[in-house]
């Protein structure tokens, strides 16, 4: 099972419809959380409490005159919202997450709808339109690649763009062979994003670094706007709202550029190489260095590793993690001599055999030749 996500091509009326449903989902979630906190001292399982809260909302709250607007929106929204609230509580009690918090409008818009009958799925045709249960048919920027069946649809907003995602019950058949069967080591870095042991390398577009100039100019030009302050009861001006939308567009474009680069790079590597070795980097510890935190975060090292791992089943690759304490950058790939290697030195000059090699390439070769004699684990 995997998911497909497509951008919706909406007009003003459809955008308003999506915004109303996302606000409806946020209202139901906050209502469930507030009522749960009020009755949490009573005995009983959390699932029974959530079911009781949903019955109260259905039989009493929706019938109140001030909440008649809820009857004009899809009933599947609040059904799925209460289910998500129950799942959040379950994860919290299992130690997999924190206790649910109230949703805020500035955190983003999203909601989920599904088919009322779980035995019935909607057929999605390979075209530039999609039928979302209880909402209608909407246009897509990109066509659905093939006919498929789906039951649950999640609509979300990033900046000024709306997306729909849905899961399909299918498995991608991995390729029967890879062009390169030898083990390849991948060394990640800031100057060069990924250096492979066979000499290939990938340069990161560094979207945030390029966007900082535009961000700083946009924020400086709007420095005198009334941005609003909730504690003082000050509302943001109309021009400030436009400013927030411009900033959101820049951040959304930056995230999309990084995501596009990582997806294409990991897919290309997974299709080409059958055996991949990558270092188990402590990204959270690396970000603690304030001099490198912005550059490391802009590269997306952890996301690169995560995508390689989950794509291993899709493309039939083997991904192995090398111990983070293995001195790949300090070890000579020619004679095995270990020496000090400051970060500012980009060329490895071996003091034992006089070998001269690029620092990142030397580390990648060492990762490819690493011996897993109880020192590292396979993914």
Distance between the termini: 20 Å
- The class by helix and strand makeup works out as alpha+beta
Which value, in Å, is the CA radius of gyration? 26 Å
Q: DSSP strand (E) fraction?
A: 15-25%
Number of helices: 9
**Segments where pLDDT lies below 50 for 5+ residues?**
374-379
Number of DSSP E strands:
16
Kindly state the percentage of residues in helix.
Answer: 25-40%
Description:
It is a single chain. A hairpin with a 5-residue loop joins β9 (180-188) and β10 (194-196). The chain has helices spanning 12-39, 46-59, 75-93, 207-221, 238-272, 283-287, 293-299, 301-315, 359-368; strands spanning 2-9, 110-114, 122-124, 129-132, 136-140, 148-150, 152-158, 161-168, 180-188, 194-196, 201-202, 273-279, 318-322, 347-349, 356-358, 377-378. The chain is globular and about 85 Å long. The protein starts with a strand and ends with a strand. 39% of the residues lie in helices and 20% in strands. The strands form four sheets. Strands 2-7-8-1-5-4 form a six-stranded antiparallel β-sheet. Strands 11-10-9-12-13-16 form a six-stranded mixed β-sheet. It has two domains: 2-168, no CATH class; 180-378, no CATH class.
Describe the structure concisely.
This protein is an alpha+beta fold and 379 residues long. The chain contains nine helices and 16 strands. The chain has helices at residues 12-39, 46-59, 75-93, 207-221, 238-272, 283-287, 293-299, 301-315, 359-368, and strands at residues 2-9, 110-114, 122-124, 129-132, 136-140, 148-150, 152-158, 161-168, 180-188, 194-196, 201-202, 273-279, 318-322, 347-349, 356-358, 377-378.
């Amino acid at each position: 099972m995997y998911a497909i996500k497509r951008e919706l091509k909406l007009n003003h009326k459809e955008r308003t419809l999506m915004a109303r449903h996302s606000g409806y989902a946020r209202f139901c979630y906050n209502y469930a959380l507030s009522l749960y906190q009020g009755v949490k001292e009573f005995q009983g399982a959390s699932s029974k409490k959530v079911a009781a809260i949903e019955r109260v909302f259905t039989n009493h709250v929706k019938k109140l005159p001030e909440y008649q607007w809820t009857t004009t929106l899809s009933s599947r929204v609040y059904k799925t919202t209460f289910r998500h609230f129950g799942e959040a509580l379950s994860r919290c009690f299992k130690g997999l997450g924190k206790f649910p918090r109230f949703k805020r409008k500035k955190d983003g818009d999203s909601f989920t709808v599904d088919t009322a009958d779980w035995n019935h799925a909607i057929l999605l045709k390979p075209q530039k339109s999609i039928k979302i249960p209880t909402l209608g048919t909407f246009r897509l920027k990109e066509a659905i690649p093939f006919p498929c069946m789906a039951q649950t649809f999640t609509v979300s907003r990033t900046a000024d763009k709306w997306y729909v995602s849905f899961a399909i019950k299918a498995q991608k058949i991995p390729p029967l062979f890879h062009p390169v069967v030898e083990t390849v080591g991948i060394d990640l870095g800031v100057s060069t994003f990924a250096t492979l042991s066979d000499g290939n390398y990938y340069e990161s577009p560094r979207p945030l670094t390029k966007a900082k100039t535009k961000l700083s100019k946009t924020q400086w030009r709007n420095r005198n706007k009334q941005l609003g302050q909730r504690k003082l009861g000050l509302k943001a001006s109309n021009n400030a709202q436009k400013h927030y939308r411009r900033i959101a567009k820049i951040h959304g474009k930056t995230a999309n550029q990084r995501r596009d680069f990582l997806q294409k790079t990991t897919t290309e590597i997974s299709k080409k190489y059958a055996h991949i070795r990558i270092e188990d980097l402590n990204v959270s510890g690396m970000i603690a260095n304030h001099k490198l935190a912005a550059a490391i975060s802009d590269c997306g090292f952890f996301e690169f590793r995560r995508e390689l791992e989950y794509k291993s089943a899709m493309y039939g690759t083997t991904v192995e993690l090398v111990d983070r304490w293995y001195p790949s950058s300090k070890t000579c790939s020619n004679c095995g001599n270990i020496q000090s290697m400051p970060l500012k030195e980009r060329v490895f000059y071996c003091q034992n055999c006089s070998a001269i090699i690029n620092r990142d390439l030397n580390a990648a070769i060492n990762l490819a030749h690493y011996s897993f004699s109880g020192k590292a684990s396979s993914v």
